[in-house]
């Protein structure tokens, strides 16, 4: 099975590249862009209050004047050219490449090392090296140099996989005579690095770290400290949290990079030790009298601190290396700190990648690609680690990890990383609503739990020569689930943490974004709108299909007896009696019974609701919109209830290791059966009057009124049902864990061996699936589930509209600015004046004066060709003024609107007068211009009164 070291290196490299772009882009923007309040100035000019408004309030304010805000940002806080986002990571890679090339030359300089020939007069070392190279399977011995000044008894290999260089320390040459076995062990260890092809990986990691320190860390630290020490009084409350977070982010990046680097380097040492032992190295090579064996620390706190300190070491302690020769559990464990690092790194990569690549492309497809890329990195590290841990536990008889604790660490890291980027907090120290961050912890826990359960199920069922195919299938499912989660978080979760209420349509209506139609104001309507939006995301339904089908597909494998071939290969050819250890998954019959019980529960609920809705109908009248939405909301809830009940029953009838797969399998069976029943009842419910919830007539065999709506309800039902199934499985598993804890009084230790289960007697269900009839049922269920997912996707592909936007029928008039303190109101009006307002005022006065002066100087002789440019100028100023921000003061805005109306009328009348050569229209145009000038003067006076232009802030 793959070791995962290369995948961790890829995660490290991507984190370095995106963090480089983030840090250096901010430094460059601060150096080359115009000084001022930048984004905050445009926010104030739009009428927002970054001091006090919640993040979602800022977004609503900006979205109401999106074009004006974009124009303001393009002028006062413009983005750097697109190639800059590529230049910074390219520079980091270039510096790392130079260091990678120059480091071997520096280490092999003549003043430090000598060729082996000069220190090996009898060629004994060369002969030993040649023999050991052949043992290690190398085509030829590597280049060897000697560092006479190094008194240690070790060696080091550097360079690259193609041109490795082994440097023997001076003390090792002496050890050759006093401890030949130890000398051979050291050489075999270094040759193992070459055979494992980790030389390039190791020194590329070191070169990247050093380049990061020189290119990113030092400039970023100087920039951050300078930003903290040079805060402007007016913007300090806004900028200080962000600047401080940048320093914290830099510190976290250093910690993440160093921990990831140390993890890569430690793993390679353990792998090299075990390879050397396989090739005949004597165990005495790892026994150093100077390194006394220390007893493990006592107490949970001391053990945790010791484990934490171990994660920062680039080389494992000798005690760990000696223990790993007999038991490589250290290579297969799910350690908390690396999982925390991976979760935080994934969040940072997703956020910083979104920030640094926004200029390269900005579309839904690009967002999906970024979510998939981030998910692939996490899957490669966490998914592979979980599979290795599960397979190793099964092969060695240890307790199989559930994945819950590992998922908690991963989710905690994801939430921690989110706190250190500006996506949630903007100008605040903490998000307006921190509670949604717990969803990240829940998501990480659920996904790793699902991965561990799938790995347990597939590893026990698989009969092939290699476990790689099922592992890749499960990892593909995990990647889809993670990508769907990251996409949802970026598009919805972030806004909930910024203060967006669950009733988004009502909140948007309150801010003047659109009007919510009648029928969508109830909680049913809110539920439908939110679920439609989530199900219409590109990755939602494929991820839900993977969630249920990946574990269910394991039931299609033909049962077998004896030890699977891949287990024999992993254990060196031996049989493992009673494979796989532990309890068996439930039979297909149990899953079908659970699904039918869930369907019955959903049907009973639906019958009761249909009868209640029918009683509310007014005879002779069509159902109201609210009535119809309530009905369709209960259709969604019925399917979700059936899936949840089926999952709960299946989980309660399964063992701990199989509760989640069993719950998901029962839920995926219940979904299409429930929908089929609803479709059938819709056709015949008119014949049973108490159940005719929509007042339909009795027409058996004819599609009922809800048939056209069912495809639109499939997606929301599947989303809600999947959540219910996960919750049911978690609740049953938690209750089972509590009962077991009460019975035993303690939990089983993680490393305690599980006694092997005796071989299954004839006729008992064997690992790998069910009978032929059972496999046929499973195949039919998988096909039905795929058909339901495809059917639910069709409406999304057909209209392509966002579900939340579909409730908008009209836009209400914008209300007056909300109450603000005098200081904030002054800053807003001053920002409006300084971020384009003054230019418009001056431009309007200039255009109006030029127009009036032209007509005054004409002396009654009007040349239409000379007038037309002034008509165009008047209309242009009116159009630009209308497109600009509303004045953040009610009195000034009232005069501003009247000015725009009069100036637009003046431009229109001016054009008509030149087209018709009508002097009366020209006079009317002049009158409108004069009136516009009067309104403009009053608006300007009010703006200057509120803003107190020219006065200092106190």
Uncertain stretches of 5 or more adjacent residues:
746-769, 796-813
What is the count of helical runs? 33
Which outline best applies? flat
Mean pLDDT score, rounded?
A: 79
Helix-residue proportion: 55-70%
The description of the largest β-sheet is: 4 strands, mixed
Q: Numbering strands along the chain, what is their spatial order in the largest sheet?
A: 1-2-4-3
Rounded radius of gyration (Å): 35 Å
Structural class: mainly alpha
Give the beta-strand count: 4
- What distance separates the N and C termini? 67 Å
Region (Disordered): 743-768, 801-821
Cofactor: Zn(2+)
GO molecular function: metal ion binding; metalloendopeptidase activity
Keywords: Cell membrane, Hydrolase, Membrane, Metal-binding, Metalloprotease, Protease, Transmembrane, Transmembrane helix, Zinc
Which structural traits does this protein have?
mainly alpha; 4 strands; single chain; Peptidase M48 domain-containing protein; 954 residues; flat
Can you walk through the features of this model?
Helices cover 68% and strands 2% of the residues. The two termini are 67 Å apart. Among the domains are: 1-33 and 84-110 and 120-285 and 297-314, no CATH class; 548-555 and 563-746 and 766-798, no CATH class; 822-947. It is flat and about 115 Å long. Residues 746-769 and 796-813 have low confidence and may be disordered. The chain is mainly α. 46% of the residues are buried. Keywords: Cell membrane, Hydrolase, Membrane, Metal-binding, Metalloprotease, Protease, Transmembrane, Transmembrane helix, Zinc. The chain crosses the membrane at residues 82-102, 201-223, 243-260, 329-351, 371-391, 437-459, 471-489, 590-611, 631-650, 662-681, 718-738, 776-794. It holds the Pfam family Peptidase_M48. Residues 125-327 form the Peptidase M48 domain.
């Amino acid at each position: 099975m793959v070791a995962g070291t290369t995948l961790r290196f890829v995660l490290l490299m991507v984190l370095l590249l995106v963090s480089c772009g983030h840090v250096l882009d901010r430094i460059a923007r601060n150096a080359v862009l115009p000084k001022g309040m930048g984004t905050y100035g445009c926010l104030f000019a739009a009428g927002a209050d970054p001091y006090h408004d919640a993040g979602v309030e800022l977004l609503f304010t900006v979205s109401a004047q999106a074009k004006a805000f974009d124009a303001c940002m393009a002028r006062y806080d413009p983005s750097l050219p697109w190639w800059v986002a590529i230049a910074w990571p390219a520079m980091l890679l270039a510096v790392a490449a130079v260091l990678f090339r120059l480091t071997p030359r520096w280490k092999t300089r003549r003043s430090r090392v000598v060729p082996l020939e000069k220190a090996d007069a009898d060629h004994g070392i060369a002969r030993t090296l040649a023999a050991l190279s052949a043992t290690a399977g190398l085509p030829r011995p590597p280049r060897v140099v000697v560092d006479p000044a190094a008194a240690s008894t070790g060696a080091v290999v550097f360079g690259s996989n193609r041109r490795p260089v082994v440097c023997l320390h001076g003390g090792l040459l002496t050890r050759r005579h006093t401890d030949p076995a130890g000398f051979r062990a050291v050489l075999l260890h270094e040759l193992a690095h070459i055979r494992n092809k980790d030389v390039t990986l190791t020194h590329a990691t070191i070169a990247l770290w050093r380049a990061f320190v020189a290119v990113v860390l030092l400039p970023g630290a100087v920039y951050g400290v300078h930003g903290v020490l040079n805060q402007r009084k007016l913007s300090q409350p806004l900028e200080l949290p962000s600047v401080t977070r940048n320093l914290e982010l830099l510190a976290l990046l250093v910690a993440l990079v160093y921990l990831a680097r140390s993890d890569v380097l430690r793993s390679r040492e353990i792998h090299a030790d075990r390879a050397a032992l396989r090739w005949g190295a004597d165990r005495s090579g790892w026994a150093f009298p100077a390194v006394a064996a220390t007893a493990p620390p006592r107490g949970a706190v001391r053990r945790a601190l010791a484990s934490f300190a171990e994660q920062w070491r680039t080389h494992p302690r000798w005690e760990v290396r000696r223990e790993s020769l007999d038991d490589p559990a250290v290579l297969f464990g799910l350690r908390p700190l690396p999982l925390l690092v991976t979760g935080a790194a994934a969040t940072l990569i997703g956020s910083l990648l979104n920030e640094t690549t926004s200029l390269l492309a900005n579309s839904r497809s690009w967002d999906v690609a970024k979510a998939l890329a981030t998910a692939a990195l996490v899957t490669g590290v966490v998914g592979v680690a979980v599979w290795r841990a599960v397979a190793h536990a099964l092969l060695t008889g240890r307790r199989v990890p559930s994945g819950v604790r590992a998922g908690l660490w991963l989710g905690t890291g994801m939430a921690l990383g989110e706190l250190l980027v500006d996506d949630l907090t903007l100008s605040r120290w903490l998000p307006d609503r921190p509670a949604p961050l717990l969803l990240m912890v829940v998501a990480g826990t659920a996904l790793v739990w699902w991965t561990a359960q799938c790995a347990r199920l597939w590893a026990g069922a698989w009969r092939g020569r290699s476990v790689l195919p099922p592992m890749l299938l499960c990892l593909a499912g995990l990647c889809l689930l993670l990508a769907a989660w990251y996409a949802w978080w970026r598009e919805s979760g972030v806004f909930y943490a910024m203060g967006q209420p669950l009733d988004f349509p009502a909140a948007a209506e309150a801010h003047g974004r659109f009007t919510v139609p009648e029928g969508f104001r109830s909680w049913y309507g809110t539920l439908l709108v939110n679920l439609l939006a989530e199900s219409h995301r590109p990755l939602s339904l494929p991820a839900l299909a993977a969630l249920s089908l990946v574990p269910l597909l394991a039931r299609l494998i033909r049962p077998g007896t004896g030890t699977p071939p891949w287990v024999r290969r992993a254990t060196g050819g031996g049989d493992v009696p009673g494979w796989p250890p532990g309890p068996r998954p439930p039979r297909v019959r149990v899953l079908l019974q659970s699904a039918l019980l869930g369907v019955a529960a959903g049907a009973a609920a639906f019958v009761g609701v249909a009868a209640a809705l029918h009683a509310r109908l007014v005879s002779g009248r069509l159902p109201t919109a609210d009535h119809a939405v309530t009905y369709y909301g209960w259709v969604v809830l019925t399917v979700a209830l059936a899936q949840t009940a089926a999952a709960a029953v299946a989980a309660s009838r399964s063992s701990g290791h199989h509760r989640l797969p069993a719950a998901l399998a029962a839920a995926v069976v219940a979904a299409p059966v429930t929908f089929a029943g609803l479709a059938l009842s819709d056709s015949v419910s008119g014949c049973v009057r108490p159940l005719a919830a929509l007042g339909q007539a009795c027409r058996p065999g004819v599609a009922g009124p809800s048939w056209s709506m069912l495809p639109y309800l499939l997606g929301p039902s599947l989303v809600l049902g999947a959540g219910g199934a996960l919750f049911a499985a978690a609740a049953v598993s938690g209750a089972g864990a509590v009962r077991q804890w009460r019975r035993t009084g303690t939990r089983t230790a993680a490393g305690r061996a599980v006694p092997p289960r005796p071989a299954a007697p004839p006729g008992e269900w064997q690992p790998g699936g069910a009978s032929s009839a059972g496999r046929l049922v499973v195949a039919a269920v998988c096909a039905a589930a795929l058909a339901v997912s495809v059917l639910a996707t069709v409406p999304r592909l057909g209209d392509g509209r966002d579900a939340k936007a579909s409730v908008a029928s009209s836009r209400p008039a914008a209300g007056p600015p909300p109450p603000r303190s005098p200081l904030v109101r002054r800053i807003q009006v001053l920002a409006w004046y300084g971020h384009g307002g003054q230019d418009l005022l001056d431009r309007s006065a200039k255009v109006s004066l030029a127009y009036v002066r032209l007509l005054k100087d004409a002396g009654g002789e009007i040349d239409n060709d000379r007038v037309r440019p002034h008509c165009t100028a008047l209309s242009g100023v009116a159009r630009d003024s209308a497109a600009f921000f509303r004045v953040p003061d009610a009195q000034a805005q009232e005069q501003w609107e009247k000015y725009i109306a009069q100036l637009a009328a003046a431009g229109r009348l001016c054009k008509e007068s030149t087209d018709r050569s009508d002097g009366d229209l020209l006079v009317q145009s002049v009158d409108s211009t004069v009136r516009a000038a009067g309104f403009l003067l009053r608006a300007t006076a009010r703006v200057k009164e509120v803003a107190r232009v020219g006065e200092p802030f106190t």
